[in-house]
Design brief:
about 60 residues; mainly alpha; Arc Repressor Mutant, subunit A; 4 helices; about 0% strand
């Protein structure tokens, strides 16, 4: 779920992003996102951590 959200944000950005819109784009309900992450801010923090891990993995190659 976080990987799909990170992919979506990488393409579309976060400026106008809503949990409903993100959920629809990645195939989950916004309520599921809230259940797992608690808030939009916590989800975005996890997306940032995921992006950082991806970048580190690429640099390590």
């Amino acid at each position: 779920m976080v990987d799909a959200a990170a992919d979506h944000v990488a393409v579309h950005g976060i400026a106008e992003l809503s949990l409903r819109g993100l959920g629809a784009a990645i195939g989950v309900s916004h309520r599921m996102l809230i259940h797992y992450f608690g808030s939009k801010e916590r989800l975005f923090a996890e997306i940032v951590r995921t992006s950082e891990r991806r970048q580190r993995a690429l640099l390590a190659r």
